[in-house]
């Protein structure tokens, strides 16, 4: 596992613009690959982004939590997402929020109902009906994955008006969310990642 910037960069306190640049480098080092890939959407692609290589990275997870929290509205009571990709995102954002004296519950939405016990779709504290919840996603392609979480949360009585992603592949997700009446923001676009990747490649910096 990469210890990218572990001793040279203060992931917890660095200014957000510096943090954003460092995260972009980390995506290029450990998460972005070029080749022939089949995506979860069923589409084929000449590149792949494994967001979990960043979100489960010790320094990257902290940086992701800080960056996502800047986009979560102050009135949001919780962040949620579809397992497995969103699990580290909602946890990181919730923990970082606690360090900033902000209460933000983490909710995990199952793809299928739990097969025993309470048989719930949503894991985490039960919140009052109408509670504003923001859905988080690591990489958005068509937008269908995060939409499953939106639907489950709305069925549970929560108010969901926004999706936030780490990376937007710019393959229809943003337009889809707009059609669904959802606000959408991304920390990076695929253009950001690919431009930095090529810059690093030219300088021999990409692993």
UniProtKB/TrEMBL annotation:
Phosphoribosyltransferase domain mapped to chain residues: 100-172
Recorded superkingdom: Bacteria
Protein name in the entry: Orotate phosphoribosyltransferase
Lineage: Bacteria, Bacillati, Cyanobacteriota, Cyanophyceae, Leptolyngbyales
Keywords, sorted A to Z: Glycosyltransferase, Magnesium, Pyrimidine biosynthesis, Transferase
Residues involved in 5-phospho-alpha-D-ribose 1-diphosphate binding: 110-111, 114, 116, 137-145
Pathway involvement of the protein, from the record: Pyrimidine metabolism; UMP biosynthesis via de novo pathway; UMP from orotate: step 1/2
Record GO terms (molecular function): magnesium ion binding; orotate phosphoribosyltransferase activity
